[in-house]
Design goal:
Blueprint (H helix, E strand, L loop, with lengths): L3 E5 L1 H5 L12 H4 L2 H4 L4 H4 L1 H16 L5 H12 L4 E5 L5 H5 L5 E2 L2 E8 L5 E3 L18 E5 L9 H8 L4 E5 L9 H4 L4 E6 L13 E4 L2 H17 L1
Bound molecules: nicotinamide-adenine-dinucleotide.
Amino acid sequence: MAKVVIFSGAGISAESGLSTFRDADGLWEKYRIEEICTAGCLNWNRENTLTFYDARREQLDSVMPNAAHYAIAKLQEKYSKDIAIITQNVDDLFERAGCKDILHLHGFLPRLRCEACGTTHLIGYTKQERDLSCQNCGGSFRPDIVFFGEAAPMYEHLYDAMQDCEFLAIIGSSGNVVAMDHFARHIKVSILNNLEKSDAINEKVYTKVLYKKATEAIDEIVVDVERFLKT
Ligand code: NAD
């Protein structure tokens, strides 16, 4: 298991042009989350939910990874065994920057998942064909996204990955969905990078706090990771 874990949220992709959920101008200002990405929406509000994710894919096609994604890719290339990348994001900007083996805790936007058997199907940035059925079982597809209130099977891997973690860097996460403070308390080095304080995070448990844009904080984070791995 990797000694260094880089854990990210919507904030790391904000400078690429993807809205976060909670910041001013975030997605919650424009959509009612309980109507389009909460457990059960696919039953009572299916077409609006699918249309929302069609639009997210179209938007994803129009943006690029930013300097923070690229710097992490470079770091991973250099120290592949020592670094794990875990994200709450459903975008593919880490992959497009060249990162490998990303643990996506909440799903992956360019992919659909069969509602019956779980078979996945990549569609890239295209609209979901409404009558597409699963080749394996004939079931219908949904976006491969964990909605609020649904089980998140990848959390088990988060706990595994954190077992040997000695250096944790959190970039662009408010802590409202996945709380990381309890891990940070027991980790030698922990860096928190957000734009500002969050009510859901106790900044005192982190050894370094950087309230600035991810693209401005990333060089310092990379230097700290390299220094840590060399000692
Ligand atoms: P959040 O929206 O709750 O919080 C975003 C955090 O990022 C805030 O703390 C903010 O200060 C920080 N931030 C904003 N811009 C930043 C920047 N340029 N540099 C550094 N930090 C910045 O995000 P969350 O904690 O990830 O939780 C929201 C949920 O929404 C997650 O489950 C995630 O899957 C989902 N989401 C994903 C995407 C995506 O895939 N790109 C986009 C929106 C929401």
